[in-house]
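Lab notebook page, bench 4
Experiment: in silico fold of construct C2
Operator: M.H.
Input chain length: 208 residues
Purpose: comparison with the prior construct
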Amino acid sequence: MLDVGCGTGRVTEALAALVPRGRVLAFDASPEMVELARARLGDRAEVWCQDVLELDLDDAVDAVVSTAVLHWVSDHDRLWPRLAQALRRGGRLEVQCGGRGNCDRVREVIEAVARERAPELVGWSPWVFAGPEETEARLLAAGFGEIRCWLAERPTCPDDVAAFVRTSILPAHLARLAPERREPFAAAVVARVTPPLDYVRLNVSATR
């Protein structure tokens, strides 16, 4: 099994428990997340740092799983063929990520604050929130079958909204600003965000 964008390894740990005699692979684009996942998983999974758009496994896997990550990938036309290449014939793909409409209200706040404080961020987004129709077309083009793609609303109320917005939503925006501009920008966004956050999940299930 392959966990794409494993983060701290929480989902990878659950996958490893499902296949005690199997082999679990996991990667993430963040070196920091890879270190946390390795500390959590020990020898229960092989974990490395990798950009999914450059994925090239030596051996195909039986299943590819990804949770709350693939909306951060900039090129979905290249994404799905890479995942198809990683799967053996008959292998399963199970993915959940942000989908069309995800965090629309939060994104409107970010855009408004950008117009006031960071004009270089106006119109820019680090995310691709695709819908089921275009995702199904991409999966078909990549060679997948038995495809199911659907959206599900998941209103989210973080315990600490300010921390969540800073750490889970804004990192890519803040990275584009000079250090002294980051906190004023983040504080202005946080001041206007009201829960629940309007999360929309894109679910993808398919066979290679």
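Observations: The chain has a mean pLDDT of 97. The longest helix spans residues 104-117.
Next step: discuss at group meeting.
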